[in-house]
Write a structure and sequence with these properties.
This is Rhomboid family intramembrane serine protease. The protein is mainly alpha-helical. It is about 70% helix and about 5% strand. Helix 6 crosses helix 7. The chain is globular.
């Protein structure tokens, strides 16, 4: 199956693996390029991009890259490589921007992971291929793609509230928003062909945009 994978998807997976491995073995490298609010606000804006290629451990890396493997090829094959790259990096950066806004009063907040970019790709693939079904882990029945997408988003909200680990949970939400918006801009026909799905996926995003800050007070 790897032979049939879009080359851009494969190269991004390889880049994530190599950069993350460097971070696993070199804390100074990880510290220099991870997402950290105070450093970004003080001018180190490159961290908003580089943090998306670093991961906490092999499990974190493996989960994100497996999701990218499953969903990235769908986006690349339907929209083409240039649009896939726009959605991937747009989601990554939007995820970082959302994290920066959400944690703006926490100067030492830091995180790593491709979660924002992958969330954007997951949402994009669901919009483009709403009939997809997934077999996950030991679940013997297929799960509709949109159920996976909403579940991924809910997990992100839980992670934001609990601030689990050094993983960019707020970037999951920002990335989903970025991927959702970018896909609709690049393929506006979805508004008419899958209007109900657009509304269904858009409602939790709109609610979180307006009420997301209240998560900190719950």
């Amino acid at each position: 199956m790897m032979n049939n994978m879009n080359q851009a998807v494969l190269l991004i997976i390889i880049a994530n693996v190599l950069v993350s491995m460097k971070g696993f073995n070199d804390y100074s490298f990880l510290d220099k390029y991870k997402f950290q609010v105070s450093r970004i606000l003080n001018g180190e804006k490159i961290r908003a991009l580089t943090s998306g290629f670093l991961h906490v451990d092999w499990l974190h890396l493996g989960f994100n890259m497996y999701a990218l493997y499953l969903f990235g090829d769908i986006v690349a094959k339907i929209l083409g490589t240039p649009d896939f790259l726009i959605i991937y990096f747009g989601s990554l950066l939007f995820g970082s921007l959302y994290s920066l806004q959400y944690h703006k009063n926490e100067p030492y907040y830091s995180a790593v992971g491709a979660s924002g970019a992958v969330s954007g790709i997951v949402y994009s693939s669901i919009l483009l291929y709403p009939g997809m079904e997934l077999y996950l882990f030991f679940i013997p029945i297929p799960i509709p793609g949109y159920i996976f997408g909403v579940g991924y988003l809910l997990y992100s909200i839980y992670g934001m509230k609990k601030q689990l680990g050094n993983i960019g949970h707020s970037a999951h939400l920002g990335g989903a928003i970025g991927g959702f918006a970018a896909t609709l801009l690049l393929e506006p026909s979805i508004f008419t062909t899958n209007k109900i799905l657009v509304i269904a996926l858009g409602i939790p995003i709109v609610l979180l945009l307006f009420f997301g800050d209240k998560l900190k007070n719950i």
